[in-house]
From TrEMBL:
<protein>
    <recommendedName>
        <fullName>Methyltransferase</fullName>
    </recommendedName>
</protein>
<dbReference type="Pfam" id="PF08421">
    <property type="entry name" value="Methyltransf_13"/>
</dbReference>
<dbReference type="InterPro" id="IPR013691">
    <property type="entry name" value="MeTrfase_14"/>
</dbReference>
<feature type="domain" description="Methyltransferase putative zinc binding">
    <location>
        <begin position="3"/>
        <end position="64"/>
    </location>
</feature>
<dbReference type="InterPro" id="IPR013630">
    <property type="entry name" value="Methyltransf_Zn-bd_dom_put"/>
</dbReference>
<dbReference type="Pfam" id="PF13489">
    <property type="entry name" value="Methyltransf_23"/>
</dbReference>
<dbReference type="InterPro" id="IPR029063">
    <property type="entry name" value="SAM-dependent_MTases_sf"/>
</dbReference>
<dbReference type="Pfam" id="PF08484">
    <property type="entry name" value="Methyltransf_14"/>
</dbReference>
<feature type="domain" description="C-methyltransferase">
    <location>
        <begin position="244"/>
        <end position="402"/>
    </location>
</feature>
<dbReference type="InterPro" id="IPR038576">
    <property type="entry name" value="Methyltransf_Zn-bd_dom_put_sf"/>
</dbReference>
Length: 407
């Protein structure tokens, strides 16, 4: 296997999580009777560019053919999107003469806030079922996988971007070089790209191994991404550290020959901290597996203890990250009776691998469990506030990452 950025041969393993099905391949009752494909979940790190990455087992076309993730079901994420739109409009003078293009625009969760200000937008969303929802909201959306070819087709139609947005899409891109070429081609000479993605340093620091799954092909540090953009004539000129998804980065990118925006001190500061943390040392990466195994053992010890006491545990949420955690730890209905999710597209289905049923949140009121195991732990505050009624029967919340906590 070769590095998807620099083509270097990959020999160093960052983490091995066994084998599991695709994290977003939620099952119907009929599919429970059929063979379920499993793939190795082994993560490599390149000893040349330090890109952390998975091997590609399934094409994006297969993974995102019928996608079950809809961004608008999280109030926290909607607020994040609304705040982002307001900030970009003010910071870069985005107005009704501008064009905002979002890559992986999902159900229009973000672009709606630009439309409300009268700003022209275009969504690029490969999952047809999700794009359909966006179009029904009145958000112009192209159903296509983004890369250089797609960018050229858009430009033929007169679509150039003043602002390109990519929230939690970069990790989903198997052909990283083609994707970056597409961004450059689509961007106006004075345009801006912003990309948000989980920060590799926070993943390691918080032992967030559950953010690793087959749909995420790569895991990024600023140090590595700077090299990627530099190769294609783009400059990362600013960075923000965000709390989303357990710790993310938002990078700001421009053409290299656009000298109107200088590189900020935040770039130099974060690169220095990443280097001191160990992200340029290949030996640093190899110890991560021991920490992950310790989290697994603590989690299983807790679940076994609770079940021996005759207590009941249910899950909250059916996120992709939850499926990595559940399958790696071997958690099935012997531990979690069921899980619930606000997304009706997931309700009535079953988690891949574990076959834990997904119900409506209303079921928790009926069964009154002793513990609610929060799978999307990055949204724990929103979920605990939303589900505060479980305190009426002394139910407790379980937060699995970075170390198991019962609240």
């Amino acid at each position: 296997m070769k590095c998807r950025f620099c083509d270097n041969e990959l020999n160093d393993i960052f983490l091995s999580l066994g084998s599991s099905p695709l994290s977003n391949s939620y099952l119907t009752r009929e599919q429970l009777l059929k063979m379920e494909p499993y793939y190795p979940l082994k993560v490599y790190v390149c000893n040349k560019c330090f890109l952390v990455q998975l091997e590609e087992f399934e094409s994006p076309q297969h993974i995102f053919n019928d996608y079950a993730y809809f961004s608008s079901y999280s109030d926290t994420w909607l607020k994040h999107a609304k705040d982002y739109a307001a900030k970009m409009i003010k910071l870069f003078n985005i107005n009704n003469q501008s064009t905002v293009i979002e890559i992986a625009s999902n159900d229009g969760y973000l672009l709606q806030y630009f439309i409300q200000r009268g700003i022209p937008v275009l969504g690029i969303e490969p999952a047809a079922n999700v794009a359909k929802v966006a179009k029904e909201k009145g958000i112009p959306t192209e159903t296509v996988f983004f890369g250089l070819h797609a960018a050229k087709e858009l430009v033929k139609k007169g679509k150039y971007a003043d602002l390109i947005v990519g929230n939690n899409v970069l990790a989903h891109v198997p052909n990283l070089n083609d994707f970056i070429k597409g961004l450059k081609f689509l961007l106006k000479p004075k345009g801006i790209i912003t990309l948000e993605f989980p920060h590799l340093m926070r993943l390691i620091e918080g032992i967030q191994f559950d953010t690793i799954y087959h749909e995420h092909f790569s895991y990024f540090s600023l140090l590595t991404l700077e090299k990627v953009f530099d190769k294609y004539g783009l400059t990362v000129f600013d960075v923000e550290e965000l709390s989303t998804h357990g710790g993310s980065l938002r990078i700001y990118v421009r053409h290299q020959d656009d000298n109107t925006r200088t590189i900020t001190e935040r770039i130099y500061d974060l690169k220095d901290r990443e280097t001191k943390f160990g992200l340029m040392d290949i030996n640093f990466y190899t110890s991560f597996g021991e920490k992950v195994n310790a989290v697994k053992l603590d989690m299983l010890n807790f679940l076994i203890k609770v079940k021996k006491e005759g207590k009941s545990i249910v899950g909250y949420g059916a996120p992709a990250k939850g499926n990595t955690l559940i399958n790696y730890c071997g958690i099935k209905t012997d531990f979690l009776d069921y899980t619930v999710d606000k997304n009706p597209h997931k309700q009535g289905r079953y988690l891949p691998g574990s076959h834990i049923p997904i119900e409506s949140p209303e079921k928790i009121k009926k069964t009154k469990p002793d513990y609610v195991f929060i799978l999307p732990w990055n949204l724990k505050d929103e979920i605990m506030e939303q589900m505060n009624f479980v305190r009426d029967w002394n139910c407790k919340f379980v937060i699995p990452i970075p170390m198991l906590k019962v609240i």
